[in-house]
Amino acid sequence: MKKTVLFAILVLSLAACAPKGPSVMARYVPERADDFVFENDLIAGRFYGEALEGNPTSPGLDIWVKLPGKLVADDWYAHAVEDPGYYHHNHGGKDCYKVAVSLGGGASVPVVDGKLAYPATNYRSYEILSSTPKQVVFALHYPAWTVDSLVVSLDKEVTVPAGSRFCRVRDTYSFNTDSLTIAAGIRRHKVAEEQIWPDRFAIWEEASDQSAEPEDGMIGVALVMEGGEIGKLGKHMVSCRRICSGESVEYAIASCWSKAGVRDAAEWFRLVESFK
Asked: For 81-141, what is the HEC assignment?
């Protein structure tokens, strides 16, 4: 009897010590319009690729809301092969965020003549720079585009750590002028509450894409950037910095869902304010 109990304890101990699966992922999605998706145990999102250009052509981040815990993106994409609208319905989370031609849930573009100067294409190539079970770093490359006489290109690097609602972004720009203002920002939809600090802002808004089914949850988004000037530009909240060619803007972006661990605006604002 004692041997049986000891054996059971040993088995349970070994199970507890056994390595768990990865808590992060990022990959190119050829089976769905050249998306590039990333995810950790709390958040998920995607950037648009070449096959989706025109529908839309946009550098903006598309936020996917999800319950904390397991990775879901691969499963959602697998089901979407047979049912293209699969991930727009709630399967422990979903895509209920509208990007269109915007900065979406966090991206940057140059400001030219007081307007956001979007890339002429979606990302055209990618790299996985490093990958461990607890953190993945990837890069997306946007070919040069022209705005009047200005020629600009963008290399985006995103770091996705496990256990955090925040991802770090480094956007490096090359252009044919002395300096350029870059706006890192978030598209404002039907905003319920928002808060601004000297180096960050947070938004609490209704789900912006309810085309597949009604959605009564709220979405929180946020951006943190040191040294930026925060304000509204069109339908966006942005933080702006002026840089020289070859320099980068670095910022953090974050999201949450009221059905998945962050209950209200006050809790979201506290979480954003405490981020270092």
From this structure: CCCCCHHHCCCCEECCCCCCCCCECCEEEEEECCEECCCCCCCCEEEEEEEECCEEEEEEE
pTM of the model: 0.91
CA separation for the pair 17, 232 (Å, rounded): 50
d(CA 12, CA 30): 40
Does residue 12 lie within any of the structural domains? no
Cα–Cα nearest to 42, from 24, 16, 58, 19: 24
- Tell me the CATH number at 194: 2.70.98
Phi, psi of 127 (to 5 degrees): -145, 140
Sign of CA dihedral 92, 66, 119, 238: positive
2: in domain: no
CA 102/CA 221 separation, integer angstroms: 14
Q: What are phi and psi of 158, to 5 degrees?
A: -125, 130
Q: How many CA atoms lie within 13 A of 118 on its CB side?
A: 17
The answer to whether residue 132 is domain-embedded is yes
Q: What would the two tokens of residue 205 be?
A: 């808004």
Structural domain boundaries, residue 213: 22-274
**Residue 56 preceded by cis peptide, ω within 30:** yes
The answer as to whether 118 is a domain residue is: yes
- Angle at Cα 201 formed by Cα 198 and Cα 206, nearest 5°? 160
Which structure tokens are listed for 233?
A: 């530009």
Determine the straight-line distance between the first and last CA of the chain, rounded to whole angstroms. Answer: 53
Q: What is the pLDDT of residues 192-246, one digit of tens each?
A: 999 999 999 999 999 999 888 887 789 999 999 999 999 999 999 999 999 999 9
Domain count, the chain: 1
